[in-house]
């Protein structure tokens, strides 16, 4: 699969105006990015196991929290912000079934991709 890299000059912020962005994970990066996108006027949902402590925090922060697979199903853009060591399994089980050519899959850090920790899953 080919990877496309986009730069600031390639961005059209209005393209996200009517889109749903799923932030998968709500740790040190996830909470900041979810809140930043929401506060910038975008529709954001957070994909977490509803029983996790971070789900409680996300709700307290005013975020819409749904299970990760439901977030992947609903979203136009799925952004992965979970620990690298959990990304491959999460991708296979909860995200991959909902991907299709018009969805965006993003990562804020690419350790698992760069070091091929996702193996043949890509």
Q: What does this protein look like?
A:
The protein is an alpha/beta fold and 122 residues long. The chain has a single domain, classed as Rossmann fold, CATH 3.40.50. The protein is 34% helix and 17% strand. The protein contains 5 helices and 5 strands, in the order βαβαβαβαβα. The protein has a 5-stranded parallel beta sheet, sandwiched between helices. Helix 3 crosses helix 4. The protein is globular and about 35 Å long. The model has no long low-confidence stretch (mean pLDDT 89).
Largest sheet: 5 strands, parallel
Which architecture name does CATH use?
3-Layer(aba) Sandwich
* Percent strand: 15-25%
User: H/E series, N to C?
Assistant: EHEHEHEHEH
Total DSSP helices: 5
Shape: globular
Integer-rounded radius of gyration:
14 Å
Q: Give the averaged pLDDT, no decimals.
A: 89
The percentage helix is 25-40%
Strand order of the largest sheet: 3-2-1-4-5
Decide which structural class fits the backbone. Answer: alpha/beta
């Amino acid at each position: 699969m080919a990877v496309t890299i986009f730069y600031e000059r390639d961005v059209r912020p209005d393209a996200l105006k009517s889109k749903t962005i799923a932030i998968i994970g709500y740790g040190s990066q996830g909470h900041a990015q979810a809140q930043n996108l929401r506060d910038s006027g975008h529709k954001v949902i957070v994909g977490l196991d509803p029983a996790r402590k971070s789900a409680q925090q996300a709700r307290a922060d005013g975020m819409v929290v749904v299970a990760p697979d439901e977030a992947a199903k609903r979203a136009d853009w799925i952004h992965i912000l979970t620990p690298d060591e959990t990304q491959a399994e999460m991708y296979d089980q909860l995200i991959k079934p909902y991907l299709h050519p018009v969805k965006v899959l993003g990562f804020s850090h690419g350790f698992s991709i760069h070091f091929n920790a996702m193996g043949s899953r890509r």
